[in-house]
Amino acid sequence: MALLRERPVRTAAVGRPAALPGLVCAALGVAAAWSVHLLLPDVPMLTAAVVLGVVAAHLPRVRGVVRGAARPGLSYAGKRLMRAGIVLLGLKLGLDDIRGLGWASVTMVLGVVTATFLGTWWLGRRMGLPGDQPLLIATGYSICGASAIGAVSEAADSDERDVATSVALVTLCGTLAIAVLPLLQGTLGLDDASFGRWVGASVHDVGQVVATAQTAGPAALGEAVLVKLMRVALLAPLVAAVALAVRHRRQAARTAPAAGTRVPLVPLFVAGFLAMVVLRSTGLLPSAALDLAHTAQELLLAAALFGLGSAVDLRSLTRTGVRVAALGLCAWVVVAGVSYGGVVLVTG
Predict the structure, then answer these.
(1) What is the pTM of this model?
(2) Sign of CA dihedral 118, 119, 120, 126
């Protein structure tokens, strides 16, 4: 059973004049998302950016611009700025962080990611979700939310509507986790450190992990971030595997990609992500540079997620809305259950 469905390669480029209105809209969306985060600190800026993008796509006086003149630039933001943000995401992770977790925790994270990805993808295919939605939703739940969806969609050349639907679902479920998981800490008998590991292994986006884990204090937050960054590290091999599957699919179908669209085994932005991990591991970068890179990464990803959110058409979701919601709920149960079991085994 193939992970990917072949589709015609899109080769149209977006010129700077055509992209300008959309990039301005994305910048305004980032400013609005930042304002929401300042007013409501528990709401991550990236989550607010997705929601505001969806809202902008449906406001009566705004949707005409979003779906018309601004569409090329918003699509550009959803792709190109997403790549740049993912590259900078590598500066959050150092090789010492991985070694510090210990082999037991690393094995637990690998098991959680594998079970969540394969289980969600298989269930999505059985439910008959269209296009690359099963692949993208599985990626978002198992790795790091919208950022992972953006990375894999680039390697798979996924349709923008599939990407937007997947991002909306994963963002919604990750946001719900901020409210639900802290209520379960006492019921499940988790101390602060174990709760942090559970959050890091089960919540999707990095910002959502921070918002959820900080409710149990600094010990929980530190463990959560370390485990979460280990999941982020698995983004590179997953994207490479998807790129390899695309290449194999085209070779099997004997369809040559158009000039300039050859699928590399390791996409350039993933190579950049790995390079940033190595750079962070050297210890050469001062804290001021890392802080600046973190700010730039947040702004780039917020602009990209606003662009993706603006591509969501709620009316078109009526075809698969129930199935998508059902898959999201099932995947949420899988990742929370498997990660809880893994944390109990590691700390027991």
Answers:
(1) 0.73
(2) positive
Question: How buried is 213 (Cβ within 10 angstroms: 0-12 exposed, 13-18 middle, 19+ buried)?
Answer: buried
In Å, how far are 2, 47, 302, 324 from 207, measured between CA atoms? 32, 8, 11, 23
Give pLDDT tens digits for 232-255.
888 888 888 887 887 777 667 655
pLDDT digits (tens, 9 = 90+) for 45-87: 888 888 898 889 888 888 888 888 888 898 888 878 888 887 8
Averaged pLDDT for residues 2-23 = 59
Q: Which tokens is 53 given?
A: 């993008």
> Residue 273: phi, psi to the nearest 5?
-60, -50
Measured CA to CA, the distance from residue 169 to residue 254 in angstroms comes to 35
User: What's the sign of the alpha-carbon dihedral 192, 197, 203, 205?
Assistant: positive
CA atoms within 13 A on the CB side of 312: 27
User: For residue 88, how many C-alpha atoms fall within 13 Å in the half-sphere facing its CB?
Assistant: 19
pLDDT value of residue 4: 52
* 103-126 and 321-347 helices, crossing angle to 10°: 160
Rounded Cα distance between 322 and 328, Å, is 10
Give the whole-angstrom CA distance, residue 232 versus residue 89. 9
Token couple for 72? 């090329």
